Amino acid sequence: MTLSFDPATVAIPRGHHIGGQYVQLPGAEIEVLRPSDLQHMGMIADGGEAAVQRAVDAAKKALAQSRWAKIAPRDRAAVLMRFAGLIEENATYLGQLEAMGSSRLISMTITRDAVRTAGVVRYYAEFCDKIEGTVTSTEANALSIVKHEPYGIVGAIVPWNFPMITAAWKFAPALAAGNAVVMKTSELTPHSLLALAELAARAGVPAGLFNVVNGYGHTTGAAIVRHPDILKISFTGSTQTGAAIMTLAAQSGIKPVTLELGGKSPQLVLADAGDIDVVAGRVAAAFMDNAGQVCTAGSRLIVEDKIADELVERVIARTKAIKAGPTWDEATTFAPIISRKQLERIDTMVRASISEGASAVTGGTVLEGRNEGSFYAPTVLENVSDDNIGFKEEFFGPVLTVRTFADLDEGLAQAAHPVYGLAASVHTTDLKKALKAADSIEAGMVWINQHGRGPEFTYPAGGYKGSGFGKDMGRAGIEAFLRQKAIWANYA
C-alpha cells in the first residue's frame, strides 16, 4: 500500500471545536500554509477571550451534567478506549492532516504518530481505576486519608512540532483523571488536533470535556492562562514562552503549571561505543529527524577524540544521503522547516555562529528549489566555543555542533549546559561508564545507546533548569492533573 497522497483530496476541518461540535466565531483570520510548498491549507480564526470563554462555559456544563469525575472509573476508561479505537480506525486521515500541515513525513505520521496517539489514550484509559489514595500513620482513634482529585477545568497549549502526540500527552491523562480540557493548537498546525476532538465526541466523550480553540499565543493562549476557572496549565514550547506563562499564571490567580521547554541535548559518544557505523546512524538521526525540530534533538555531539574524525565523516555522509521533498510523498526522507520565519531564524543563527568563530564542515545553507518550501541543509559546526551563539541557544533545526574529549570526566564537563537540561544520550558498551555518565548529567531524560523516546509511554518526559519542570507521560503524567486532599477524622 502506498502512503503518498494528493493534498487536494483531504478534507480540512474548519472552526474551533467546542462543546462537541465545530463552531465558527469571529476573530482575526489566520492563513495556514503547508510547509512543504507554502501553499494554502486553510483559514482559522484567532479565538481570543471569546472562544476561551465559550469553551470554559461548555466545560463547566459538561462536568456538571456528565459527572465525569464521579462516574465509575471503568466507565470513564471505556469511553477513552473507544476514543483510542477511533483514532486507530482513522489513522490514515489523521496522518494525512498531520503530514500536510506540519513538518512530519507521511512515512511517520500514520504508522507512528497516529498509532502512538491512540496508544497514549489507551495507556491513560487504563489508569482510570488505578488512581489511589493513601492512609497515613496516625495516633489511635484517628484516620488520616490522602486522596487525589481532578482540578476541574485544565488548560493545555501545544506546539507545532508533533502536534497530535504532544497534545495526547496532555489531553489523555487530563481526561482520565476526570478533568475537562481547553486546549490551544499552534496557529501553524491546528487541523489534526481539531480532527482528534471530533473523534473524541464520536467516541462518547461528553460534549464540552475536550475543547480545541485556535489562535495566537499572545491572544488565545494568554486568555487560557488568565482565565480564573482554568485551574491548571500544561505547556510545551520554548523556554522564553514558558517563562511568560509562569508570570501570567502568577499574576492571574496563582495556578500550577507544567512546562516542557527547550533543550540543547548532548550526545556523549565514547570510543568503546561499538559499531561506528551504527553509532553514526543514531547520531545523525538525533539531529536530522523532523529536520531537527524536536525539543530533545541531539544537537551537541561530544565524542572521544580517538574516534572523532571517523564518526564525523560518517555522520556527514548521512547528511548527503537525504531526500528533501513534500511531506506527503513517502519517498521523502528529510522534512521541511515549519515556516519561512523559522527557516530565516535558523539561517541567521548559523551565520552568527560562524561569524563568532565556528566553522561549517557541511551545510550551513538554505536548500533551494524544493517546491518553494522551507528546507535547510543538515549542518555540522565545529569550533563552537562556550560563548558562541551556537552553544548558548537552541537552533531548533538540523544543526549539530561537535566537540571532542580525551577522557570521560572531560566529556561529562562538556555535556553540561548553563541553561538547558532536557535530555542527553550516552553511547558506550561499558555499562559502568554509561551509568556513571547518566548519574552525572544534569538532565531530565538520559538515554543509553539510543537518542529519543521511542514508542514507550511508561517513563516521564520533562527537563531540568531552563528546560522546564513537571512531567508528561508515565504515572507522573496523570499525577500532574490531580491535586491532593488530606482528610483527618478524629473518632475518639
TrEMBL record:
Record-linked InterPro entries: Ald_DH/histidinol_DH (IPR016161), Ald_DH_C (IPR016163), Ald_DH_CS_GLU (IPR029510), Ald_DH_N (IPR016162), Aldehyde_DH_dom (IPR015590)
PROSITE patterns per the UniProt record, alphabetical: ALDEHYDE_DEHYDR_GLU
Record keywords: Oxidoreductase
Keyword Oxidoreductase: yes
One Gene Ontology term of the molecular function aspect: oxidoreductase activity
Enzyme Commission number, as recorded: 1.2.1.-
Keyword Oxidoreductase recorded: yes
Residue ranges constituting the Aldehyde dehydrogenase domain according to the UniProt record: 28-487
Pfam assignment, any one: Aldedh
Class of this enzyme: oxidoreductase
Family stated for the protein in its record: Belongs to the aldehyde dehydrogenase family.
Name of protein: Aldehyde dehydrogenase family protein
